[in-house]
Write a structure and sequence with these properties.
Number of strands: 11
Largest sheet: 7 strands, mixed
Strand order of the largest sheet: 1-4-5-11-10-7-6
Helix content: 25-40%
Bound molecules: zinc ion
Shape: elongated
Length: 380
Amino acid sequence: MTTRLDIVAYTVPKLTDYSTDSLTQAFEDTRRAFRDEQSAISSEADWKAFRDRWMARKSGILTQINEQLKAAPKEAKKELGQHLNELKRFIDEVTNAWREYVEVIPRRVAISGESVDISLPGVRRPIGAEHPVTKTRNEIVSVFQRLGYSVAEGPVVETDYYNFEALNFPPNHPARDTQDTLFIAGQHSKPQRERLLLRTHTSPVQIRTMEKMRPPIRIVIPGTVHRNDPPDASHSPMFHQIEGLAVDTNITFGDLKGTLDHAMKALFGSNVKTHFRPSFFPFTEPSAELYVTCFICGGSGKRGSDPCRPCKQTGWIEVLGCGMVDPNVFEFVKDNGYDPKKVSGFAFGAGIDRLALLKYGVDDLQYFFQGDVRFLRQFG
Ligand SMILES: [Zn+2]
């Protein structure tokens, strides 16, 4: 079917004369053509065709004019650019008004019920699915829930006291550096421990929970944390952590190893092996990093004849940090039954997003946070 739109369709002339008069005339012609085509719109299909013809990024009219700008002689570029900007503003205004008229208003009318035929089937809304990060978080939480752990949560905007001091970060510890921590503005008149910041880890919730609950406790703490890292394939200023804390009498490093070994097998399959390497965290002593056999290459370091990238060919992947709770941390909650001479405990913390990246073989963290349905649909 030929619409009226086709009849008046405008094609971009090839510019050869770059004089002021000629440019003004050419852009006036374009604007007139735009108005003519617009006045020929009589259906939603027309509108869409019109919109695509003018605005489509790949070969729309605006893009074609932009191409001409690139090809123009240097001295004409400035003037041509001004004309083009003006044209864009004009087209934006008109199309926004039209979008409202063609796309938004009919929807509002339908919602307000003025012209609803109730004998028609309803609009079927697509059912969403769990985001891969949420899915991974829920899986980890449920592994620990089956072991008798409960879920604890806490504020994202934290005080320096809970985020650092009570977790045994000495005043000059590098993690306190403003490079890592996003501070809330205007806090300098307060004493340091009361200053607000965006929590850099979920660990403050350990202290908050121990203040409220007497031992024994077994908790997992999922949540968002923030650090001053520019976004790239493996960093984001906002990301997700999950950590766990178990405190009781006679908790040993053996309990830590047994618990985490079980959890890793539950998460990644009963074939995975675990491996602990010594590490350092201010709030645990001793501390370790937990490695599991690479669940992509099965520990061989190779995928067929290619090297396995996720484990850097080592066959091992670091999944979390852990350790025995430092007695200094218990000192901060001693009055609630956490006498370091009487109780002991272990803690661990992992980045949920990183585990989700590994688990689903995604190579860029940013995909998780861009909200692009085409990406997310794969996990539905
Ligand atoms: Zn591997």
